[in-house]
Design goal:
By secondary structure, the chain is an alpha/beta fold. The chain has six helices and seven strands, in the order βαβαββαββαβαα. The structure holds S-adenosylmethionine.
Length: 175
């Protein structure tokens, strides 16, 4: 399995523990790769974390049976990143992404503002599905998990603690 933009390796470690699979994680940030390696070592997991750009994956064609990307594709050149995920996937393999979506009726000025502030361009659920099927993938499906947002926010708050929340608040305020 390849985890594109694996960050601190939380998801990669979880999947390796859960499914006992062989995994590779790439991320553009040296700091993230270092943290991911430390995490895997602590958990005694053998995961190959290395620096790489999602737009130019450092792997041969048809290298992985599963490719995932969590919370990142909206911040990338989506067409390039998706084409790269497909290139390194074996025929018949599986691609899974987890990302944020616009509601169908989101006003355009909100989209423009998010792009300006965060440089993120989201899709609607249908839009995400289309991006993958237009690139030749079959059996594409999308699932709305927005009902889990409040649970996720609560657990994030706990994990971040007071100083973590303050740090993020300051960042948002500055922007
Ligand atoms: C929001 S984090 C998500 C991390 C992880 N997937 C997770 O869900 O915990 C986004 C990650 O994408 C990485 N990233 C951003 N641009 C990238 C790129 N062009 N190629 C690879 N990684 C990238 C960042 O360094 C960061 O670790």
């Amino acid at each position: 399995m390849l985890d594109v933009a694996s960050g601190t390796g939380e998801g990669t470690c979880f999947l390796v523990e859960e499914f006992k699979c062989h995994a590779v994680g790439i991320d553009i940030s040296q700091v993230m790769i270092k943290r991911a390696k430390e995490k895997a070592q602590k958990k005694n997991l053998n995961i190959d974390f290395k620096i790489g750009d999602a737009h130019y994956l450092p792997f041969e064609n048809n290298s992985f049976d599963v490719v995932i990307a969590e919370c990142v594709v909206c911040a990338l050149n989506k067409e390039m990143a998706i084409a790269e995920m497909i290139r390194v996937l074996i025929p018949g393999g599986f691609i899974g992404i987890h990302d944020i979506c616009w509601k169908e009726d989101t006003p355009n000025d909100l989209k423009v503002r998010l792009k300006a502030i965060e440089n993120e361009s989201l899709e609607t659920l249908v839009g995400w599905k289309k991006l993958f099927s237009d690139n030749g993938l079959e059996n594409c499906s999308v699932t709305d998990k927005s009902h889990l947002m409040s649970v996720w926010m609560e657990s994030n708050k706990k994990n971040l603690g007071f100083t973590g929340q303050l740090r993020i608040g300051m960042k948002v305020f500055k922007k």
